[in-house]
Amino acid sequence: MKAELSEYIRKNFEGENLSFDEALDLFSLPLPVVGRIADDIREKRCGDLVTFVIDRNINYTNVCASKCKFCAFYARNREEGYILSLEEILKKIEEAVEVGATQILMQGGLNPDIGIEWFEYVFSEIKKKFPEVQLHALSPPEIHFLARHEKTGIRDILERLKDAGLDSLPGGGAEILSDRVRKQISPNKVDSSGWLEVMRTAHEIGLKGSATMMFGHIESDEDIVEHLFKIRDLQSETAGFTAFIPWTFQPERTELYSTVKQPAPATRYLQVLAVSRIVLHNIRNIQASWLTQGFDVACLALFFGANDFGGTMLEENVVRATGKPFQPARVEDIVRAVKSVGRPVAQRTTLYEILRHY
Predict the structure, then answer these.
(1) Are 201 and 252 in contact, with CB atoms under 8 Å apart?
(2) Rounded CA gap, 254 and 322, in Å?
């Protein structure tokens, strides 16, 4: 490998920040080259073990005041709207626990009819019945919306939810942390600084969380680098992110479909994944997205910087709302896929503790 390319590996391993131009230059490299750099970093940082979690995504409501242009999930009218009852939520969790789930992800819309007391009641009841599950719930936009709805601060909302049973925060609602982009695709949602402030506050009170990036719509390479740098810089400040998950926008049935007709190709996905691994020297776990890419590309992602295969996702409704076919991944499917490319595989918790080797 040329000296200038191995310099990317050295800087990552020594925790040295890339400059904006250095990060941007990665997009001009041939895909096999940027993949090789990312794979070398993955091997040095994580070894060969690939992990996954058994989980279920529960969307407690589809009513949303944000009405983002990239979303096909939110209810278009009152008749289509719903709020799950506690009994429905507990039933879904029971079904997941029966097949070994350790993580329950709960996200929904920005619903003005749901206040903090509803979440406190639901979370506490979940923990009474299923104390062993990791409640990985409410993205930063939901927390920000709750704080405005209750006319209180972010810290107050997070502390109350933590006391009720919240264990960690998913990184949803980040999309691209560039306000130039956000003003066009999600003008009614919290801006980038607000998203980061929710995560910063969560980390400060002991709530870990993941970080995500949804790309393949109207963003530029510069916007992606801006996003990665904001995540990197907050991680340097708090060390609160457990993983980074880049995934591609699915345009069908969304308002953006008139502009973006097709999802980004697999080559673009692998490129952005590799750049993410190279830039984010302080986040150990990079997750492949079999949900948007399928198993074949997700296995390729293991050679472009990813060390984690995500979750089994016993239920998923947001991406499925775009019309993309969805089928939960069985444990044996993930194990077989990972082993087919010569990697060892293990089940993990939300916080990346190893539960079982296969």
Answers:
(1) no
(2) 7
Give SS3 for 276: helix
Contact in structure between 133 and 349 (CB atoms under 8 Å): no
Block residue for tokens 């191995």 = 6
Q: For residues 39 and 163, what is the distance between their CA atoms, to the nearest angstrom?
A: 40
Tokens of 32: 């096999």
Please report, in tens digits, the pLDDT of each residue of the chain (358 residues total).
566 678 999 999 999 999 999 999 999 999 999 999 999 999 999 999 999 999 999 999 999 998 888 887 788 887 899 999 999 999 999 999 999 999 999 999 999 999 999 999 999 999 999 999 999 999 999 999 999 999 999 999 999 999 999 999 999 999 999 999 999 999 999 999 999 999 999 999 999 999 999 999 999 999 999 999 999 999 999 999 999 999 999 988 888 888 888 899 999 999 999 999 999 999 999 999 999 999 999 999 999 999 999 999 886 666 665 656 667 889 999 999 999 999 999 999 999 999 999 9
- Amino acid (one-letter) located at 16: E
Name residue 286's beta-bridge partners: 244
In the block, which residue shows the tokens 């006319």?
151
The radius of gyration computed from the CA coordinates of the chain, to the nearest angstrom, equals 19
The residue among 348, 286, 289 whose CA lies nearest residue 319 is 289
Question: Domain ranges in the chain?
Answer: 3-357
Fold entry, domain 3-357: TIM Barrel (3.20.20)
What is d(CA 193, CA 189) in angstroms, rounded to the nearest whole number? 12
Q: Residue 31 and residue 236: Cα distance in Å, rounded? A: 28
Tell me the pTM.
Answer: 0.95
Q: 184's torsion region: left (phi>0), alpha (psi -120 to 50) or beta?
A: alpha
DSSP class of residue 352 equals -
Query: Residues of 315-352 as b/e, b for ≥16 C-beta within 10 angstroms?
Result: bbebbbbbeeebeebebeebbebbeeeebebebbebee
Contact 273, 305 (CB under 8 A): yes
CA 327 to chain centre: 19
What is the Cα–Cα distance from 323 to 72, expressed in whole angstroms? 9
